[in-house]
Each structure stands twice: as structure tokens, then as C-alpha cells.
Amino acid sequence: MNFTPKLINRFIYIALLLFPCSVFAQNLVKYVQPMAGTAIATTASALKHGQAADTRFANTIPAVTAPFAMTQWTPETESGETKCVPPYYYKDSVFNGLRGSHWLSGSCTQDYGSFTIMPITGKLKTTNYSTTFKHTDELSSPHFYSINLNQYKVNAAVTSTERCGMMQFTMEQADSLYLLIKANSDYHEGFVKVDKQTGEISGYSPAHRIYQGWGKSAGFSGFFVIRFEQSLSKTGTFSGDKTFTADSIKNDVGTGIYAGFKLNKGEKLTIRIGTSFTSLDGARKNLQVEMPGFDFERAVANSKSRWEKALGQISISTGSEQDKRIFYTSFYHAMQHPRLFNDVDGKYPRFSGNYQIEKLSGGNYYDDFSMWDIYRAQLPLFEILNPVLINNLAKSLILKGKQGGWMPVFPCWNSYTSEMIGDHTVSVISSAYLKGITDFDAKDAYQILRHNAFELPANRADYVEGKGRRALDSYLKYQYIPLEDSVRDAFHKMEQVSRTMEYAYDDYALAQFAKALKNTADYTALSKRAKYYTNVFDPSTGFVRGKHVDGSWVSPFDPDKKATYITEGTARQYTFYVPQDVPGLAKLMGGTKKLEQSLDSLFEKGEYWHGNEPGHQIPFMYNYTPSPWKTQAAVRKILATEYSDGPGGLGGNDDAGQMSAWYMFASMGFYPVNPVSGEYLLCSPLFDSIAITLQNGKKFEIICHKSNPKSMYISAVKLNGKIKPDNFIRYNDIRSGGKLEIYLNDKPGNSWAVKPVNQPKGM
């Protein structure tokens, strides 16, 4: 056999996969498929409901990264930082380089502060250098990516830490190797510089806001510094097809730095890259601490070890290798965001600031909260797995509220956005506090959250910037948001019924926080507001419906057509968004049997849309009816039809891991319909057994006893050896460790947890 560099590189990679660090018995990274979600969705509900292309892609990228890291490293097939266009699409066949990316995984936002490094060989060219590739030329995992660029006879690979990356370029023939380094900026504000004395190339790309304040400076940049294993010799700058001897270039189209090397066949060039959101000096410090040497194989092994530890918190037993791939790929996707934002020395850009730098006294600061999505399941998952992380996230949100004067509702690119609807930061902080995750100033946190719930900015300019709840004045005046209020100072305008319902949930969440702090007056007022969802429910139709100031209902009305007063869906779908009070919703409908019939109708008509978050609690709502077995059947069907292990195996935007976290909860047999309550609705686990290792050193196990391999209907449940008649468990049941045993039959049960006494009580 001819041991070419290409083969050697693959042998190294395969060895790292097969022989992980000995402290981890399982080899779990082999189940992770970073390409999942990079192709257009092929699921039935996506084809029916996700007409727009941006909702048909999961919009994930094959990120080489660490859990919740600052920077993701990805192959680039799409240049620029355009909204709703991720750096990589599986359908593409042209490679532009390896990108240091801050793309919000699974989103329809934009990349920011990114840069790209493209290797070419032969003669220097600074335009038309992209090259075709096939997916068989790629190897992708959470800790390592490589690609053979056959046109250039070079292999490019990358690995990472939390804030840094390392790339290695292996020559397949003796030739000149050039690295083209570009700071990506659609605003043409990128800057790159070479310092031959220190052998460093550095640069930055200023970040800009979208949604509220679209196009304005976000008050920070993405900085990077690059160190080379070999001395720099031939360097210069370029703009388009013109090259220059200058040592820096900025604010132009198609600009960058080139660095050239003469290399032999089989020779490798290794580079280290530090990133930061504060400064070039911050990037240098991050690089020195996290990646001080050039040992690429060791860096790959360390990154793999980090992922094995993270994924190893949950161990599943099943005979289905496909299910393992979907589960651990979901776990990987659920650990992309929120994003680490501070340097190793604690420095970070002030929230909604103007290039002001703050410094933490301890812990970490995070941003890029896809809040409308992740409060539902992704963050609740880590309340179980990583309370320390959740505490850091809560403290980060509180810092934002203090520094900006208002609690952000959807903080991304370290700015106010007012993207989507609701005010779900209150759910995250209240939920954490009520679960005993309390290493933050609760009174400070409460006052900032209360500020959002009871007041609007006196300064209109602040409101237009995205501070404060949208349409709060109408919500408080009418106890719903009428159609006459078009909510014009928002990216998502109108959507009045959905806003009313989501504010009602947020008021419930804040009410629970007020109660815990013994603020009786606020608790009473907010609990009343938590019932405002009833004001947009039309009992004559059994659905939520647009309502005018005079109390009349919008007409004509079709519950199965998308409407301007509903967010990304239909009235039928949104009617079930009352996570705080499902029994109250059932009462409005005419009783729990009516609730069951309404749920039946949704599924029978094919109107359930799993690719959009407001419906994620719906399959579990049968647990509030006389037929909880229907939850078990519905969830199993969704697991089977809405997820796969191919590139198109996610049925909609993954939205920073929410879609993936849903799969994880549902496949393990429990789900937080109402995250603040600390209750998890049970369904039948997909696996034979699950073991969750907790940060407190305890272990929570779920064991399935099946009458046959296809059994999926619950007949009985035991918790720590005692019969459990309820169809839900609590947070403390899990955090205390122990064993949940679920007995499954192949036919629906008509006795387990069918009575209201064994179901969650709502409000």
C-alpha cells in the first residue's frame, strides 16, 4: 500500500476515534453526525407547513467546537454574513475555506465577526480560488474536520478549544502553499494585518445588529490572531485580483492577507488561532492559555476527550444504532449555545455598549440566547445536567439587564433585538431560582424582570431600540392585545393573540418568583395576568382568535389558515399554548374530554407542526386528559417521523438546540411542558435504559420493562421501588438520584394516570 499523507491523516483520525482517552469507557463521538440538519428537511410536517425555504432547513453547520464555546470552526460553502444563510449547505459543492464562525446554530439570523482561511497551491491567486469537492472528501466530527482539496493537492484539517482553533495543512506534492486570510464583513469593515517580526497575522470584523437597530454597530468586533509553526516569508495584502506589499488592509471589498510557504510532499503546516470579542490582546491571551503549542494530534485528542466527557453524562442502552446516532447528534446540537463571550481573564464586551469592556469577578459571561426557543426544553435540559452553567447563564442575563437598563427578551450579538415575541428571560431566571440554582442576587434579578413586566421606557428611542416588552401598554389596558395595535416597533409586527398568550405565561413565571420572594401583592397581580390567555379564547369556536378593541372577534375566521395575529402558525396550533394552565384551558373548552377531542382533531387533520416551537408541548398534553396513552403514541410517532440521521433529518430550524433537546427529553421518556413548575410529563422511553450522571455525583436511571420489544404503552411506573400513580415526575426526583422504572405493554392502558388527581394541576 502507498502510504500517502492523505491516508496517514485518515489513519490518525480513525485511531483517535477508536481509542479515546481511557477515562471514558464509551466512544460516543462516533455517533455524532455534524452534517445532520445541513440539508433541506424531508419530514412530512416540514413539507406541509414549512413553505418558506428558511423554515425547511435546520440551519445547523458541521461545527468543530467545544460545548457552549466562543467560536465554531466550519467548512465554508457560502461566503458573507447574510441573514438566514449559514456558512455551510450540504447541497453545495464548492469550498471557500475554513471559517471561524459565530453563526447561531439552527437559526435564521446571520453570522458575525467571522473570518475565513483558504489554502491554495501553485501560483498565487486572490480571486476565483474556490474549489469543487465531494462529501467523500470530508471527515466531520465534533472535535475534528478535514477535507481533501484535490485540485490543490492539499488536505486541510481543524480542531478547537473553547476560544481557539488549530489548523493543519498537509501537502500531497511539493509545491507552494498560500493561505488566504479574510475578515468577513458584509459592511466592508474588515481589517487584517501581518507582523513579520512577531510572525503573527491578526484582524477583526465589526459586528452589526439586525432586527431592532438593524445595521447599527453592535459595539464589539470579532478579533483573531494567527501564529504559524514556520516563519513567515512571503506575505502581502490583496483586494480583488490586485496584490500589495503593504502589511495591512481594511474597509474594502474582497480584501485579505496572503502568506506563502514552500513545502515538500508530506510536509505539514500547522497554525494556531486565538479569538476574542474584546481585543487582539484578548485573542492572544486566549491562545496562550488554551493552545500554547503546535501539537495537532494532541489538540484533536484533547478536544475529543472534552466531547466524550460531555456526551457521557447520558448513557443509553438500545439495539438501534440509528437511534444512538440521532440521540448523540441531538446532544451535540443542544450544546452549541448560548455562546461563551468572555476571555480567559474574565473580560467581555459590555452588553449593548460601545466598545466598552467589563471584567467578571468569577464565572463566565454568555450571549446568543435564542430565547423564544430554548426556554422550552434546551435550557431545562441543562438545569438537570449542568446547574453551574445555568447559574452562569442567569447571571449573564442579569448583567445584561443591569448594563442596558432593561432585561433583553432575545439577546443576540450582545445587543437588544426584540426578535420573536414574549419575554421569556423571566422563565429562565425564575425557573433556575425555583430549582435551587440561586448563586445570583435574586432581588436584583426580580426587580429587572419586574421592570419589563410593569413598565415601558419613557424615552421612545429606547423602546425603538428594543428595550421593554412590545405592546405592553395595550396588554395592560385591555388585558389582551387588540388587533388595532399593530405592534409596529418590532421585527415581528402584529401577532397580537400569540403575544397575549406568551405574556400570560411569562406573568405566571414572574408570579412564582414573586411568591418565592414573599412579594404577595405582585404575586396576586401577576397570577391574575397569567389568566389573560382566556381573553383571546373564543368559546363559540373553541380556538384562540383575533379580537378588536370593542371585544368583537375577527371575521372571517379559519383556524387552519395562517393569520397575522398568530406567530408562525395557525389559531388551531396556538390554542394549545397555555403551558402554565392546561387544566384551565380544558375548562374553557368544556372539560378534559373536549381537550382530548381538540388534540385528536389537530393530529387527525395533520395540523401538528413539529418544526415550530409553540407546538412542542402539544403531544404531552394528553397527559391532562382521560387518555394519557395518546401522549405515548403521539410522541413515538414524532420520534419516528420527524427525526432521522441524515443531513435532512431535522424538520425545521433547530433554533439553538431546541428541536434537538425535544428529541432528547422525549426519547428519554419525560418533558417539561411548563418549565417553571419543575414537573416533567411522562411518556414511554425509546430506549431500554437511560443513566444520567448528575453534577452532584448522583445518578438517575430510567429502566423500561417491556412485554415485547415493540411495547410502548405505560401500564405502571415505579420510582425508587414504590408504585407511582402520577404521570409526571419532579425536578427533585431527578436531582436526588434514583431509579424510575416504566412498565410497557403493546396495547393502550385504560387505568394508569387517567384521573385528574394523578395529573399536573396547572394554576
From TrEMBL:
Co-factor requirement: Ca(2+)
Pfam families in UniProt: Glyco_hydro_92 (PF07971), Glyco_hydro_92N (PF17678)
Keyword Calcium: yes
GO cellular-component term (any): cytosol
Keywords in alphabetical order: Calcium, Signal
Keyword Methyltransferase: no
Positions of transmembrane segments: none
UniProt name for this protein: Alpha-1,2-mannosidase, putative
